[in-house]
User: Fold this.
Amino acid sequence: MDTFIIEGGHPVSGEIPVSGAKNAALPVLAATLLTRDEVSLERIPKVRDIRTMANLIESVGAEVTPNDGGYRIRAAEVTSPEAPYELVKTMRASSLVLGPLVARCGEARVSMPGGCAIGARPINLHLAGLEKLGAKITQEHGYIRAHAPHGLKGGVIHFDRITVTGTEDLMMAAVLAEGETTIENAALEPEVADLADLLTKMGARIEGAGTSTIRIQGVSELHGATHAIIPDRIEAGTFLIAGALAGDPLTVCGVNPNHVSALIDKMRQAGVEFSFPADDRIEVRAAGTLRAVDLATKEYPGFATDMQAQFLAMMTQAQGESQIIETIFENRFMHVSELLRMGADITLDGNRATVRGKTQLSGARVMASDLRASASLVIAALTAQGETVIDRVYHIDRGYERIEEKLRGVGAKIRRAR
Ligand code: EPU
Assistant:
């Protein structure tokens, strides 16, 4: 299993590029199952979860051809509308094929996702939404079966709780349903709007994506399209935090600043200064003294749960006491025990972490437990005294493209050992 070996205390300076967004690319790949025609996708990040989704759509019958930074995909026939256990167990976002498969084939079987490192993460809201569109849902042998032999029918879906992939899954189901579908209390994440952009290019009729009410007029078929994925706001945010701790200065390139505004607001409150040399560039340098600030994670446009671990690592370097409350997932503080091993002063009480700083972190052997927790360990290691060894970096490879090469490119002392 690969490890990262990081020698802390070196500044990072220069330009660091942002890849396409993993969480936008995943639903977009699933959406290619909605048409027989070729869909050409650009700026697909080369990360493990994307490879898993590509394998999944291949296993249902699509032809996937990698080309220059993207994929050409043709699902001329769907031969087996099923997401098998072997793939779903490695990536919960596999449930994103449920909506497209039942819309296209009238039938889908998806292995039930089990527990997950960051929480229970059920898909009950996806299933209730599909039922509203007329699908019959049954469960057998660990699989969920959605069945709509005469096609889906438009309906009103009200999510009791905001769900990102749930909104995406139902949007993909509704584009081929007969009549109008309204999704209420929809997720506002930019990845939802990006998916709607692609679907619209494919001939779907969608209004309001990116707001809390999405209206979809079903069409009888979709056609091919070309689409470039939006930049990864979480990768960009991770680099901004690295820059706030060690930037000399660091310019994050190819980012949409609007997508990281909640993060930038919080970082400014902590004393970090930014400049915007171009529309898609943000420059940040190490703040002299960081101040402790409190935060609670929230759905977009609030502070992203996917940035909580990295921000918490930054707060170990801030003066004072910071309260960090996780409201989206019930068990997303796995990085805390590893940061404690590096000398951080953090107490946990349910969904609240109290971080007291500033503490001098010292390099240690630590373990990556999930994607964003791993990113927070990389950030901590960059500022720690001495060498940190991070085990199980396959977690980080799920969602960050060549992170060690990108960081090395701006002066960090990080290498991968196999
Ligand atoms: N929930 C339910 N029932 C459902 C769906 C969700 O109870 O049917 C709950 C979840 O358990 C969670 C909350 O609702 O407590 C929000 O979950 P959501 O469905 O929004 O999360 P997701 O769609 O499974 C996506 C991202 C996550 C990100 C969350 C929140 C993708 C592929 N994944 O997950 O990204 O943390 O939204 O923003 O888009 C990551 O990239 O590291 C990651 C975990």
In short: Residues 111 and 141 are 9 Å apart (CA to CA). The domain at 22-228 is CATH 3.65.10.10 (UDP-n-acetylglucosamine1-carboxyvinyl-transferase; Chain). The chain has two domains: 3-19+231-417, 22-228. The pocket of EPU is lined by residues 23, 26, 93, 119-126, 161, 163-166, 191, 305-306, 328-329, 371-372, 399 (CB under 6 Å).
